[in-house]
Structures are given as C-alpha cells and as structure tokens.
Amino acid sequence: MKKSTAAKKSPATSKAVVKSKPKAEVFTFDGEISGKDVWEFINTKAGGNPNNVVVVPLGNVNVDDDKPTPFGYTRQGGTRALFHDFHVKGVEGDFRLGNMLDKMRKTDGHSKQRMICTVALLNGGYSTSSAVWGTPFISLQVQK
User: Fold this and answer.
1) How far is it, in rounded angstroms, from Cα 85 to Cα 82?
2) Closest C-alpha to 103, from 90, 114, 121
3) C-alpha separations of 30 from 26, 27, 63, 120, 123 in Å
C-alpha cells in the first residue's frame, strides 16, 4: 500500500473579536417589595429615569392567555387587568416602566410612587394571602 505524500491541509482558522454587551442591571430584592424599593433601584441603577427600566415578563406568564397571571383579572376589562396587560404585553409594544406608569396615571390616577400593580407583579399578588405570594411574574431591568 502506498502512503499519500500529499500534505494534509488544515482548515483555515480566523479569530473574531466579539464584544459582549454589559450585563443589564436587574432588580432583585429579598422579602416584600414596595414602590419605595423600586424607586431606589431606579434612582441608583437607572439614572433616576423609569424609562431606563424595562419590564420583562417571566416564564410563568402566559402572555397569550386572557388571564396571563393568576391574580389581577377578577374583573376582565377592569383597571388591574388593564395594568397587568401593560406589564405583560407592553403599551403598544413598549415595555418601558416610565411609559407604563404614565399611561396608568392617565387612566385612573395610579400613583407613580406606589405603583401598586407593578409591585404586585413583583411580589406575586396584592397581599401576603395570595396563593402565589413570593413568586414574581415580571423582572425589571435597566436598559439605557
């Protein structure tokens, strides 16, 4: 048997420099969350601007369902249901927290400071008696 004398060619290799995006600041908190806690995050991590914070629905939210979360939809078409939809479906596709809070304020005078629905979605309900209390349904992330 004759051995091949042809040199084996190795595949061409190139090195690409990939620049990674800096990790987004994500709101994390142990225990019950309040509007004050969210504002502290906005002020310290998002330059004091809630429009630098995006709301990200978590995997336990069924966005296509009429009731994407297990609370807040007692009255279909009600204020809480509408506000929950803003958080899980966006306001006309916009997931900036500041825009949501502005829209909520125009709807019923919802407090930008207390942000009850936002806090409920972070806490897993409107009170500690909620069956899913302690389970967040959204995440807040800085996006500048």
Assistant:
1) 5
2) 90
3) 13, 10, 26, 14, 10
pLDDT confidence of 58, banded at 50, 70, 90? Answer: very high
* Count, residues in the chain: 144
Supply the pTM of this predicted model: 0.80
Helix/strand/coil (H, E, C) string of the chain? CCCCCCCCCCCCCCCCCCCCCCCCCECCCCCCCCHHHHHHHHHHHCCCCHHHEEEEECCCCCCCCCCCCCCCCCCCCCHHHHHHHHHHHCECCECEHHHHHHHHHHHHCCCCCCCHHHHHHHHCCCCCCCCCCCCCCEEEEECC
Give burial (CB, 10 Å; 0-12/13-18/19+) of 103: middle
Query: Rounded CA gap, 64 and 101, in Å?
Result: 22
Alpha-carbon gap, residue 22 to 43, rounded angstroms? 19
- As a whole number, mean pLDDT of residues 82-102 equals 95
Closest CA to 25 of 56, 6, 46: 46
